[in-house]
Specification:
Elements: E1 3-10, E2 19-24, H1 32-42, E3 47-51, E4 60-65, E5 70-71, H2 75-89, E6 97-106, E7 109-118, E8 123-128, E9 135-138, H3 142-148, E10 164-167, E11 172-176, H4 180-185, H5 190-196, E12 204-209, E13 219-225, E14 230-233, H6 237-251, E15 256-264, E16 272-281, E17 284-302
Parallel strand pairs: 2-3, 4-6, 11-12, 13-15
Antiparallel strand pairs: 1-2, 1-17, 3-4, 4-5, 6-7, 7-8, 8-17, 9-10, 10-11, 12-13, 13-14, 15-16, 16-17
Helix pairs in contact: 3-5
């Protein structure tokens, strides 16, 4: 039976920017092996499969695959799938505007996404990152970390920011980089990468600097996940959610709500913008919200 699929660019307002995502709908007939094979065929950072929810209170159940493995949660697949479902199920409005709440069952739990649809504009979605136990650890000295990412020690770290590892639903390493010039030189050194990151079960390495290309951005980032079959990711919502812990740790945010715009994917020619909102109470991170635009760029049928 032919299955419908859609391609969306996520964390961008313009086609062919952001992070591309494949979404296969009505995928209940597929086995896990089928899904992995299809994700490998699309060969995008992630492919989402939409299934019938187990609870009537949810819009859909989704499963998320990279080209090499399944993920319990990921940001741009959550946002892109919710935007697509809102568009497919929305009723025309007289003013061309509509809002929807899309409740998704994911391996990590329930995620509710607020979607805003506007005529002749990219849809905008926003969701609270799932709350999960997360611990922040220091990584080895800059000499080891820098060698794994093709830099020299002086190019790793700025101000009081040091390399860290956040263990949670996805394990991300966060590496501060001195400036944009150094960020442009980053590359994976396979042997050193395995020693520093793979050996610690790191799923992805998120490098960041305060120097930015866009005036409205607070951080410029790149993300590499070769062990997941993703050489470089244009926009990483789950890493941005984890980055909130890093910001709070090193920047010592006061209680209240804080917004930070993160630019990513620029070196890949796929500029992305991630809206990160953090609520701090008594010095602790209480909620993390991820937002961004998404736009549909293609659709078709899987015939095999």
């Amino acid at each position: 039976m032919a299955l419908n699929y859609y391609i969306l660019d996520v964390f961008t307002e313009r086609p062919f920017g952001g992070n591309p995502l494949a979404v296969v709908t009505e995928a209940d007939s597929l086995s896990s092996a089928d899904m992995q094979t299809i994700a490998r065929e699309f060969n995008l950072s992630e492919t989402v499969f939409v299934l019938t929810p187990t609870s009537a209170g949810h819009t859909a159940r989704i499963r998320i695959f990279t080209p090499s493995r399944e993920l319990a949660f990921a940001g741009h697949p959550t946002l892109g799938a919710a935007v697509l479902l809102a568009e497919l199920r929305s009723q025309p409005q007289l003013n061309g505007e509509s809002d929807a709440i899309i409740a998704l069952e994911e391996e990590i739990g329930s995620v509710r996404v607020g979607v805003r649809l506007r005529t002749q504009a990219a849809a905008f979605g926003e969701f609270d990152a799932p709350k999960a136990t997360a611990t922040l650890e220091r990584l080895p000295e800059p000499e080891e970390v820098s060698a794994a990412v093709g830099l020299i020690p002086i190019e790793v770290g700025f101000e009081n920011h040091k390399p860290t590892l956040l263990r949670g639903a996805n394990n991300f390493a966060f590496v501060p980089v001195a400036n944009l010039e150094a960020m442009a030189k980053v590359k994976v050194a396979p042997q050193r990468w395995a020693e520093v990151f793979s050996s610690r079960d790191v799923h992805g390495v998120f490098l960041y600097t305060r120097q930015c290309v866009r005036v409205q951005s607070a951080f410029h980032a790149r993300m590499f996940a070769p062990d997941l079959g993703v050489p470089e990711d244009p926009a990483t919502g789950s890493a941005a959610a984890g980055f909130a812990h890093v910001i709070n740790e090193f920047d010592e945010l006061p209680d209240g709500t804080h917004k930070r715009a993160i630019e990513q994917g620029i070196e890949m020619g796929r500029p992305s913008a991630i809206a990160l909102t953090m609520t701090i109470g008594r010095g602790k991170l209480e909620t993390v919200r991820i937002g961004g635009h998404a736009i549909r760029v293609a659709e078709g049928k899987l015939l095999a």
